[in-house]
Structure to design on (1088 residues):
């Protein structure tokens, strides 16, 4: 697949369809791959990489890059949902991007590999359904399914809702049941248990803003949390309240627009399961206002900017689950 | 935390009231000499839709023990549809607060028209009593603001 | 040489806790640790590094600087600090131990930052050698020897316990009353363990990382390098690298109105943030390229220029592990020095 | 002063003078009625309104003024808007002095001086000008070129007319950007005016104003034959701590709050172009 992608990228650069290509650049230890913009064939030949560690969602970069001229982006299915949402919100001009959908078998999470006690990694190779991890302390073999990112284990779709061309076979939507299991588990707890759970998680927050800055739905020019006139600008969570405030509002501001790409959880240096906040909103919206999938198309109205006369009253919250 | 002369907890309750209906409803209950608790702090807003989730959270941050939002009955919004959006927003916000383990009884939305002075007073009484029974807000308070 | 058997660690920490609060690394997830206050039964992490650095102990993420109360239009100034208590940090690796020296150069230079100074005066640093360095480690590039970690007391780890040596006077005073917790062993075991660590360091993928290209006085050489554009292109402008970094010390000062007074606090800030240099009149660093460049120029050129050649990086590798897009100081150093060879 | 550099002191705003539509000059005293602390010309201090924030401002009064301290502040952001709402008798806090001053007792001593200011850029220079006026015998000829958008935007206009212009050996040239009814003085931008006046190359120049004005003025001076070593300027960047630790005003290996704000132009040339 990597060779096909490189070939297509070079062709599209050569025939002038695009002037730049967004992809991924290899790193030092095979897992530390950075998103990158390539401008010529030589760069692509040398540095372009596509493997199980290309986890970063490149769609957000297209806001900036597409403003500079036509750009090619390779999109995994989840990136394509993010992309489509950005197109629907007019953050990216469709004619300025050339989108190639690429299949994705799930991305590996280096932290899950390391959590198995593997350290001193010098290289990783894919070997069927396993990875061979070379380390200075010897080689280790780990099963692919054991080290996939959480978001990939509960992948929502292998289908690309938007693309100009596809490489490989188009996939299908996957059943959603597993995706909400984490939310359901929390819903089944008592309020005290939920409170304790979230305090434990959110108190780890170092307010690095990685979750916000990486989020393809967080595209405000000036975030409320950076705006001194908003009254809630914060730079560090100086009080537990601010941890709650930040994460509730961050999730709320992307509710109805979040495609559940899982980038927030991927980038969190403290491993806070931020997707559980976003998925709660997705689940609530599905249950209360009918199934809605952000990034599916650009016609269906966002559930938070629409309504029906028969909508549930807020008191519905009081009647549900355990208090 | 405020206590009364008998040592019982007196909650601080913030009520966001729509200018066109509930705020007038509060007025009406006043002119009708209907009593409602003095620990209800009314904040007038141009429409219930003006209240965004940060308002609710900031009220708790600043010492509220309960927050109630009052607007026009669905279908009667002065701006036609504002309260429909409010309804969705608050439903999702309250659900999220509940999900975070914050007492679900601390937040409420009620639709009170300008003619419903009685309903306004009753709603406020019952909400204040509910919050008093619940005790002080400890899960969504800002410790720096505690006196 | 003093030797603490693995089985006696709990006794040692209990004894140390009698005179001060002791913080130890604890596993919060598999292979992910954070410093926690030690209480009886707390299991000390065997991991290499905590996710956050140890700078929090001396330079916490937020701290109140001053309080204001305003009565009758008069401003009353309140110093929020109480008596600082003695504490010890256990299991500090060589990289973090060196970082304190770097922070000292900032906070203890005139005018002295008394908030930091107080904590430094009360904090005892118990360091530990690294037995199983990670691929992200490159402390040796900055002249750090992970087998001689420094601090006040150094623990050299072996299979069945630790050789313990006082490094400073303060360390000696601390160890003096704890004598009966230790065995007396000849130091050959310690030397062997240290050599083992040094041998591993030589095998690490970043063992050959060179710093020669960088240093004070090289602003002109690096500032306008074209490589900054591609190095910074994927940077999302978050503060992860800054906040996990043991030597990043930029801070912001903010006021918080509590409704019954004002707390002025300082908190970590990041030069990677878009609003770091934003003023009413504009922002001199408009794009992420300038912000990104500032962080690395500061560590590799500006800091050594002001501090006798010492770099503002200790090679702990936390930014390598945490960066959302895997850009880091190693890639910057390699790219910039490669480009230099070509030119 | 308290050795705690980050803990400020309450001071009373004794007087608020409206200089221009967007500049006010605040006279500051301790509660006991004294000047808060001594400083040197060109140094700055952190002024704060608790709950709003803190900002670095040039001390515009001269060190020779033993009675009080003054700050001329232009309303341009969040904090300055609050400061502009202050009334006499209200309190703010202050800490300082910070930064490197103009070298009035070193390089400038005995020299012919040329001050060039634009708009609120007069604030830091006013301190030097008055210091020099009060020590007239120790300095040579003084020439001041000052420009603003309009006559109403000239800060300290009365002091200029009544005190500066009447001091022997001090010449003042005023200019405004555009023609205005009631103004019969020079019209034109400061950099051009400087070239027109063609000052003596022996002079030492002190220049302050908006970055764009400084840039073109220095360009003009260089064309006239002035060397960068003859030109002094003062910078402004976002600052928080004032003592070279918070990292905000770091340019190259320098911290504007500690190593500046006053720089000789050749020193600025050594710094990366970030200003």
């Amino acid at each position: 697949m990597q060779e096909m992608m490189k070939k297509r990228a070079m062709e599209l650069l050569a025939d002038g369809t695009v002037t730049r290509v967004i992809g991924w650049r290899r790193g030092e230890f095979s897992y530390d791959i950075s998103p990158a913009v390539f401008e010529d064939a030589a760069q692509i030949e040398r540095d372009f990489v596509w493997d199980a560690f290309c986890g970063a969602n490149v769609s957000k970069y297209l806001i900036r890059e597409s403003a500079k001229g036509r750009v090619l982006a390779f999109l995994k299915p989840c990136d394509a949902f993010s992309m489509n949402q950005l197109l629907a919100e007019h953050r990216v001009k469709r004619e300025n991007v050339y989108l190639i959908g690429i299949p994705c078998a799930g991305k590996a999470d280096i932290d899950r590999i390391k959590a198995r006690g593997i350290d001193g990694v010098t290289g990783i190779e894919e070997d069927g359904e396993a990875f061979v991890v070379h380390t200075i302390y010897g080689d280790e073999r780990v099963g692919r399914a054991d080290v996939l990112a959480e978001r990939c284990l509960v992948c929502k779709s292998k289908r690309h809702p938007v693309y100009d061309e596809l490489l490989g076979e188009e996939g299908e939507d996957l059943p959603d049941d597993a995706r909400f299991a984490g939310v359901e588990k929390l819903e089944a707890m008592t309020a005290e248990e939920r409170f304790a759970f979230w305090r434990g998680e959110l108190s780890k927050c170092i307010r690095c803003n990685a979750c916000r800055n990486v989020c393809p739905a967080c595209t405000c020019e000036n975030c409320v949390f950076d705006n001194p006139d908003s009254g809630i600008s914060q730079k560090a969570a100086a009080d537990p309240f601010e941890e709650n405030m930040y994460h509730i509002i961050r999730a709320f501001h992307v509710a109805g627009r979040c495609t559940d790409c899982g980038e927030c959880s991927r980038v969190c240096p403290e491993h806070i399961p931020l997707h559980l906040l976003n998925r709660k909103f997705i689940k609530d919206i599905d249950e209360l206002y009918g199934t809605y999938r952000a990034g599916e198309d650009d016609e269906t109205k966002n559930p938070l900017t629409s309504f029906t006369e028969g909508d549930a009253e807020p008191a519905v919250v009081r009647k549900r689950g355990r208090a | 935390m405020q206590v009364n002369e008998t040592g019982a907890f007196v909650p601080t309750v913030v009520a966001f009231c729509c200018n066109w209906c509930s705020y007038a409803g509060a007025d009406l209950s006043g002119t009708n000499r209907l009593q409602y608790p003095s620990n209800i702090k009314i904040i007038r807003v141009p429409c219930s839709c003006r209240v965004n989730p940060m308002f609710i959270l900031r009220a708790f941050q600043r010492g509220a023990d309960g927050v109630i939002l009052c607007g026009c009955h669905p279908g009667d919004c002065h701006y036609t549809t504002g309260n429909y959006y409010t309804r969705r927003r608050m439903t999702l916000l309250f659900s999220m607060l509940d999900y975070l383990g914050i007492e679900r009884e601390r937040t409420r939305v009620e639709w009170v028209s300008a003619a419903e002075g009685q309903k306004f007073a009753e709603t406020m009484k019952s909400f204040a009593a509910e919050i008093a029974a619940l005790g002080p807000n400890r899960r969504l308070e800002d410790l720096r603001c505690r006196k | 040489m003093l030797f603490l058997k693995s089985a006696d660690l709990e006794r040692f920490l209990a004894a140390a806790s009698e005179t001060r609060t002791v913080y130890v690394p604890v596993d919060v997830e598999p292979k992910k640790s954070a410093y926690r206050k030690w209480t009886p039964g707390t299991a000390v992490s065997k991991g290499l590094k905590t996710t956050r650095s140890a700078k929090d102990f001396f330079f916490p993420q937020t701290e109140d600087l001053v309080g204001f109360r305003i009565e009758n239009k008069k401003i009353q100034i309140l110093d929020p600090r109480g008596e600082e208590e003695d504490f010890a940090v256990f299991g500090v690796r060589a990289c973090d131990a060196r970082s304190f020296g770097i922070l000292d150069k900032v906070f203890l230079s005139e005018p002295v930052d008394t908030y930091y100074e107080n904590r430094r005066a009360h904090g005892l640093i118990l360091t530990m050698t690294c037995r199983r360095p990670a691929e992200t480690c490159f402390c040796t590039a900055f002249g750090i020897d992970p087998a001689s970690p420094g601090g006040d007391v150094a623990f050299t780890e072996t299979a069945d316990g630790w050789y313990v040596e006082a490094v400073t006077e303060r360390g000696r005073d601390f160890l003096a009353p704890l004598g009966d917790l230790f065995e007396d062993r000849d130091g050959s075991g310690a030397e062997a363990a240290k050599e083992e660590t040094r041998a591993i360091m030589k095998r690490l993928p970043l063992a050959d990382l060179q710093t020669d290209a960088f240093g004070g006085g090289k602003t002109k050489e690096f500032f306008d390098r074209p490589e900054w554009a591609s190095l910074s292109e994927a940077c999302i402008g978050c503060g992860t690298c800054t906040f996990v970094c043991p030597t990043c010390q930029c801070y912001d000062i903010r006021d918080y109105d509590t409704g019954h007074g004002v707390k002025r606090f300082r908190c970590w800030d990041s030069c990677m943030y878009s609003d770091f240099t934003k003023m009413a009149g504009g922002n001199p660093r408009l794009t992420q390229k300038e912000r990104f460049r500032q962080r690395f120029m500061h560590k590799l050129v500006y800091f050594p220029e002001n501090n006798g050649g010492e770099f503002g990086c200790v090679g702990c590798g936390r930014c390598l592990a945490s960066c959302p897009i895997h850009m880091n100081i190693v890639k910057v150093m390699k790219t910039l020095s490669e480009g230099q060879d070509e030119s | 002063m308290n050795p705690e550099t980050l803990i400020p002191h309450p001071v009373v705003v004794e007087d608020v003078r409206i200089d221009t539509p967007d500049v006010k000059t605040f006279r500051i005293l301790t509660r006991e009625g004294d000047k808060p602390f001594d400083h040197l010309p060109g140094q700055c201090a952190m002024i704060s309104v608790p709950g709003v924030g803190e900002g670095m401002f040039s001390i515009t009064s001269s060190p020779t003024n033993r009675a009080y301290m003054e700050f001329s502040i232009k309303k341009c952001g969040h904090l300055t808007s609050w400061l502009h709402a202050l009334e006499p008798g209200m309190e703010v806090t202050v800490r300082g002095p910070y930064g490197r001053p103009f070298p009035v007792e070193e390089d400038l001593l005995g020299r012919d001086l040329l001050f060039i200011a634009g708009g609120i850029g007069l604030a830091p220079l006013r301190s030097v000008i008055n210091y020099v006026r009060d020590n007239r015998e120790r300095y040579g000829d003084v020439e001041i070129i000052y420009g603003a958008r309009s006559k109403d935007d000239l800060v300290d206009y009365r002091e200029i007319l009544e005190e500066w212009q009447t001091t022997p050996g001090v010449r003042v040239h005023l200019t405004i950007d555009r023609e205005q009814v009631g103004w019969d003085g020079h019209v034109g931008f400061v950099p051009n005016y400087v070239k027109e006046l063609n000052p003596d190359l022996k002079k030492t120049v002190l220049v302050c104003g908006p970055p764009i004005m400084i840039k073109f003025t220095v360009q003009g001076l260089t064309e006239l034959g002035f060397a960068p070593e003859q030109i002094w300027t003062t910078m402004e960047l976002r600052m928080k701590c004032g003592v070279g630790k918070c990292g905000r005003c770091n340019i190259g290996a320098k911290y504007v709050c500690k190593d500046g704000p006053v720089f000789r132009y050749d020193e600025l040339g050594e710094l990366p172009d970030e200003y």
